[in-house]
Structures are given as structure tokens and as C-alpha cells.
Write a structure and sequence with these properties.
Layout: E1 2-6, H1 17-25, E2 28-32, H2 42-49, E3 53-56, H3 58-62, E4 78-82, H4 90-101, E5 106-109, H5 114-117, E6 132-134, H6 145-155, E7 160-164, E8 166-167, E9 172-173, H7 176-190, E10 200-205, E11 212-217, H8 218-221, E12 231-235, H9 241-248
Parallel strand pairs: 1-4, 1-5, 2-3, 2-4, 6-7
Antiparallel strand pairs: 7-12, 8-9, 10-11, 10-12
Length: 256
Amino acid sequence: MLYFIGLGLHDESDMSLKGLETLKRCDEVYAEFYTNPFCGDPKSLEKMAGKKVFVLKRADLEENPSENVLKNAGELDVALIVSGDPMVATTHIDLMLRAKKKGIGCRVIHSSSIYSAVAETGLQIYKFGKTASIAYPCGGYFPTSPYDTLKENLGRGLHTLFLLDVKAEENRFMSVGGAIGLLLEMEKQKKAGIFDAGTLCVGVARLGGEALIKAGAAGELAKEAFGKPPHCLIIPGKLHYMEEEALASLQTGKIQ
């Protein structure tokens, strides 16, 4: 059996009791922290599990799962620990499909996720549209699909949550300011007039831990220090008066 166990938003103390009990029962334990940064201590995870925790790199899980997580999951109980909720990342959905094709049973133990935690900003969950990831440009490739998602959501009056790129093996984590800079570059290319230095934004860091949430004009927010990762960026759509009140309490600088 393969168990997908969510760690929650911040560190090992966010794991559910069900997750911890399952972890202790498993014969082998793996973890991946490249889809979302883990702010806790891997050694503490080993103490909690009572066994070695093998931390996997991206290539291990995406290219060679049959050599690690799936190798013995047909005969033994194997756990994969992930930051946040296990089924948010498409990597884990792919792994589940691979396991099922091999006849390996799968169970998911859910945990807290950015998709619900963003309500701490005061923005109403049901008013969020499609989520997009902002990736680092690589070589001559500069993906602008996040801009298209923003345009679509704004056209419907919906909020947009941007998940920011993580290059864990390179120790590179995109910041709120970095994401704003890339959106401004996309605006120069696309020229739809939907994002500029005066656009209202909400920057978020480390939800579930020492959270920092600030709202303000893009140009001002890009100058703010949000500290350690993970960060995410929200562009609000049409605001309810309660949302306006909530964001006013988080305001930094002047919102145009």
C-alpha cells in the first residue's frame, strides 16, 4: 500500500494524528520538498516516524519512482510525505496513477493547503478563479500563460492566486517582488492593460507559520521584504465591502 501523507502548511507539527499514526506503521518512508518548501526539520520527522526518512529529488520521483517509492509498495506499506496537501501537486496525481497501473493500493491522508489558507487574507474563497504558477524564465523561454489566466479571471471579477516557482535543489524560491516583476514584463509583451505598478496586489508568505500578509499597489509591494519562503501572490478581482475592509487593514503604501 502506498500512503500519501500531507504535512500541512508549515512544519512537522502540522501533521494530523491520522498521518502520524500511519507514518509510524509504514515500513518505508519517503519525502519530497521540491513541490513546496518545508519549513520544519527532516530529523524531527525521522524521530516522529521512528525510522529513516529518504528525501527525494525531483528526478527521483518524476522519472524513477519504480526505484524508490513504488519499488516495494506492492508488498510493504510505504509512505510519501509531502508539504501541504498531497493531491494539490500534479506530480502526486501522476504517481498515484502509476501505482494503480502496477496494482498498488493507494490512500491519501489530507492536510491543510494554500487553497483554503488564503482566506486568511480576508478574500472570500468562492470568489477565486483559476490558479496559475509563475515560473522562472529559462534560457529563451518566458512563459506568459499566468498573464492570460489573470486576464480571464479579472474579466469575470474573480481573484487570482499565483503559486510561485520553487527550485529547491538550486535553493531558489521566487519572491513576491520577483513575481510582480515578471507580471510587469508580461504586460509589456501582451499589452492588454490589466497589470501595472498601481494594480492592487496581496503578498503572502509562510501561511500556517510565521505568516506575513500585506496588501498594496504592485510597485510598492514589490519593494517590501517578505522574508523566507514560501511566498504567493494574489491579484484581487471585484471586491465585496468586507473584503475591502480586510485588505485595508493589510495595506502598505498607497493603493491607486
